[in-house]
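Slack export, channel: ligand-projects

TW: morning all. Re-posting the request from yesterday since it got buried. We need the structure predicted with the small molecule present, not the apo form. The ligand is calcium ion; the SMILES is in the block with the sequence. No rush, but it would help planning for next week.
GE: picking it up
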Amino acid sequence: MKKRTIVFVAIAIAVAIVGIGFTLYFINSGSQRGLTAPEHLDLGERYLLDLDYEQALIHFMAVIEIEPMNPRGYTGAAEAYVGLGDATSAAAILRQGLEQLPGNEDITAMLDDLTRPAHDGETPLPNYDITLELDLTGDSILDAEDNSILLVPAVDWSSGNAFFRSHLSDNFNIKFDYKIGGGTGADGIVVAFFALDEIPTVVGGQLSFDGSEGYGIEFDSYHNQEYNDSPNPHIALIHGEASNHLVSVDDERVRTNQWHTADITVDGDRITAKIDGDAIIDYTGYIDRTNRSMYFAASTGASNDNHYIRSVVLTELPLTV
Ligand SMILES: [Ca+2]
Ligand SMILES: [Ca+2]
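GE: finished. pasting the full token output, ligand included:
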């Protein structure tokens, strides 16, 4: 071979190798490389502007995964969670950010905004549906430390109501956590609905419910024979008065000093209640919707317990035809 031919062959081989290299590179970048953190950030911001919070969340979570030291991943994901109505997860992702970036100003400021205790019903509450306004009466207080409401402390002859100033639609679902215990065992919590707007707090076995003219799901830990109670801790649907149990089911989860999740649905002529996912109450009958208020109440008497709720979320359901 002549020298020039050898040079051509060498160039041809080099071109071929570079070409294969480029091909491999493009295959990699197209199908395996995925998006970079700046690309995820850009998409996250765009979806936030479009109010597409689910997509925004996916991209900000990807930023956290790829670039855990980038604070915008956490604040962006938190904004998306807030947009989705999930303030609990928003606060959790911000706290995760502060573990990576202790003292970061943006994350701290957003977490402060989210978790600042509110008591005047004007500022959205952490863990609480932002459409609800809260009004605490009697002995109920907001526990700023863990964002729960202490409806009634473990002190004899106490009572408190927590009104959520949101008029109920015909059909709705309400979810919340509750915790009862730490005292000598009385009286319980009731979540009242289709109730009057103003109810005075009442101590003892009426659970601050009588006079509300509404319905309630009660978590009754104390046996009041005079109010037709089951001798055991019970979860019941009550109407008008605490003594009027439409459905009553004994359940030890009333009083464990642990958090449990209640999930109550009113839909058409049916009222159902689940505890920790287990169906407890399923009632069908005429439901009087004259009054539209909703509140939580708790009380103690000659015995007592701490009565907490948290993470209250009310969802309107479409009309049943
Ligand atoms: Ca009772
Ligand atoms: Ca009862």
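GE: first-pass observations. The two ends are 91 Å apart (CA to CA). The pocket of calcium ion (ligand 1) is lined by residues 187, 205, 220, 222, 224, 227, 229 (CB under 6 Å).
TW: perfect, thank you
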